[in-house]
Write a structure and sequence with these properties.
94 residues, alpha+beta, flat, 2 helices, 3-stranded antiparallel beta sheet, two-stranded antiparallel sheet
Length: 94
């Protein structure tokens, strides 16, 4: 169920918040134990007593690191306040 929206303004940024109410379903106790391990090497390892499931870490940054370094080097060589520097800055994402 949605509540009343509230608008606020902080400096030049406007924000809108909406209150909501949600029904929380009842928790059914089954007596089973589930273990979840979050890590860096493996994103998630789940063990339910019978089976262990591994989910690989996607490593998005490492995958695109070489391309990002190349784009940053190109940006560093551009002349300040030029249109080509602005285009390169948008490619880098800064």
């Amino acid at each position: 169920m949605l509540g009343n929206p509230a608008l606020s303004r902080e400096s030049s940024v406007g924000r809108m918040s909406i209150d909501t109410e949600q029904k929380i379903p009842e928790v059914i106790v089954t007596g089973k134990v589930l273990g979840i391990d979050l890590g860096l090497k493996d994103f998630c390892i789940i063990h339910d007593g019978y089976k262990t499931s591994k989910y690989a870490n996607p490593k998005h940054f490492k995958k695109h690191q070489k391309n990002l370094a190349r784009k940053q080097a190109k940006l560093a060589r551009k002349k300040k306040e030029s249109k080509s520097r602005e285009k390169a800055r948008k490619l880098v994402g800064s």
